[in-house]
Design brief:
- With 112 residues, the protein is mainly α.
- The chain has a domain of 77 residues.
- A two-stranded antiparallel sheet has the order 1-2.
- A hairpin with a 2-residue loop joins strand 1 and strand 2.
């Protein structure tokens, strides 16, 4: 369409700048975003943020579960080491003391 205006301007000997200004007025060129475009972008960003928060929450839960499993395995290993050294499991008093200590001939060993 602008080619037509340029051709017409050459025929009528009108400057190209005037034709471009006229074309801009006719088309009402406006480079701003519309409200709908902004709302769509905000909605997309919100959806991505929610998905990121959900996956981060799942990762934290899996991390806590892995730590719990590791802690239980450490207790299991400590009890097995105590049993191998003393041929018995610790008593309730030893367990409630907070540390399971074996006093053998080679010295004092802390298991847990």
């Amino acid at each position: 369409m602008i080619d037509f205006f340029i051709f017409y301007a050459i025929l009528l000997n009108i400057s190209i700048v005037k034709i471009i200004i006229l074309f801009m007025k006719i088309k009402k060129y406006n480079p701003a975003f519309t409200l709908v475009e902004l709302l769509v972008v905000i909605a997309i960003i919100s959806i991505i943020a929610v998905l990121g928060m959900v996956s981060l929450s799942n990762a934290r839960m899996k991390s806590r579960d892995a730590k719990r499993v590791t802690d239980v395995k450490q207790v299991q290993v400590a009890l097995e080491m105590f049993y191998n050294t003393n041929n018995r499991y610790p008593t309730t008093d030893e367990w409630n003391a907070g540390t399971i200590v074996s006093t053998s001939s080679s010295g004092e060993v802390v298991y847990f």
